[in-house]
Design goal:
The chain has one domain (7-291): 4-Layer Sandwich (Metallo-beta-lactamase, Chain A). It has helices at 32-36, 41-44, 84-90, 97-103, 121-124, 145-152, 164-172, 247-263, and strands at residues 7-8, 12-14, 18-28, 58-67, 70-74, 93-94, 113-115, 140-144, 176-179, 183-186, 189-193, 202-206, 222-224, 267-269, 281-283, 289-291. The protein contains eight helices and 16 strands. A hairpin with a 2-residue loop joins strand 10 and strand 11 (189-193). By secondary structure, it is α+β, with helices and mostly antiparallel strands. Helices cover 21% and strands 24% of the residues. The two termini are 24 Å apart. Strands 1, 2, 3, 4, 5, 6, 7, 8 and 9 form a nine-stranded mixed β-sheet that branches. Strands 10-11-12-13-14 form a five-stranded mixed β-sheet, with no helix packed on it. A two-stranded antiparallel sheet has the order 15-16.
Length: 294
């Protein structure tokens, strides 16, 4: 039996007193072949199964981060502007980030920042409501400048697959913040431009590197991978997806960051993983990576 459409995890504390919760905004079902790209089915089917239409059942995971008196939402799900036909094809249930927050007792108007890992529909589709107004009226929406420029570009592969209209609605409301490269958003929350999946994809590194953690903080640092690593099933760093625009870049940056995550015991949050989060990862005897203890 499927778990509830909306739920929120207990908070985890990281260095510097940064609190993180996972807010589940619903489900969607991408094509398994596209999701795993050139990875043969006998390999990926060790971890998960496809439905009768060849689709995977995945989560729309948002992060709710609280630190330094600020509330940060990472990702916005698919939103409310999809047609019924698109919802059916993509197997979307839920997807409205404001509704997901209200369902677990959180106020969308209390969000100070909305961080978008990139501009695909399942991450940036919930920037605005049905009338085109930002769903989070007090928030600054944060995207990498490279991602914004790619959405405005003329690359044929990108036409119609990035949420340009919603991006421009947020810009018109004077709520858009474009950043360039690695940026400290607030103390203990850093944005890392990774590229790979899209030109301006970004991850979120959580926990203060300057120390200051309190005695009761049970963890040190964590990372939200975005679609650079969408589930724990893609920890093999060479497992690229058909959705990766720059697969060679994706492999290189994954290899670097996953090694750090294993060596420094980061806790990992995955944007589409249906399992319990966060997890830690470890290096195997053969030099690959897997969830710790698996």
């Amino acid at each position: 039996m499927r778990r509830p459409l909306h739920e929120i995890s207990a908070p985890q504390l990281y260095a510097g007193g940064v609190s993180v919760r996972v807010a589940r905004a619903g489900w969607f079902r991408p094509d398994a072949g596209a999701f795993f790209g050139v990875v043969p089915r006998p390999l990926w089917s060790r971890f998960t199964e496809a439905d009768e239409r060849g689709r995977l059942e995945l989560r729309l995971n948002l992060l709710l981060i609280e630190t330094a008196g600020k509330r940060i939402l990472v990702e916005t799900g698919t939103g409310v502007r999809m047609t019924e036909r698109d919802q059916e094809i993509k197997g979307v249930e839920g997807g409205d980030p404001a509704e997901a927050l209200r369902a677990v007792g959180e106020d969308p108007e209390a969000i100070d920042y909305v961080v978008l890992s990139h501009l695909h529909y399942d991450h940036a589709g919930g920037m605005v409501d049905r009338t085109g107004r930002p769903l989070f009226p007090r928030a600054r929406y944060v995207v990498q400048r490279d991602e914004s420029e790619a959405a405005h570009g003329d690359e044929l592969r990108l036409q119609g697959i990035m949420e340009l209209e919603q991006l421009e609605a947020v810009r018109a409301a004077n709520q858009l913040a474009e950043v360039n490269g690695e940026v400290e958003l607030v103390e203990g929350v850093n944005l890392l431009r990774t590229g790979g999946h899209t030109r301006g994809s970004q991850a979120v590194l959580i926990g203060s590197a300057r120390g200051g953690g309190r005695a009761e903080d049970p963890h040190e640092r964590a990372i939200f991978w975005g679609d650079l690593i969408p589930t724990r099933w893609q920890l093999p760093v060479r497992w690229t997806s058909a959705f990766d625009d720059y697969p060679i870049d994706a492999i290189e940056v994954r290899n670097s960051l996953v090694a750090r995550a294993a060596d420094e015991s980061w806790w990992c949050y995955f944007t589409h993983d249906p399992g319990e989060l966060p997890i830690q990862i470890e290096r195997t005897e053969k030099g690959s990576y897997r969830p710790r203890g698996s």
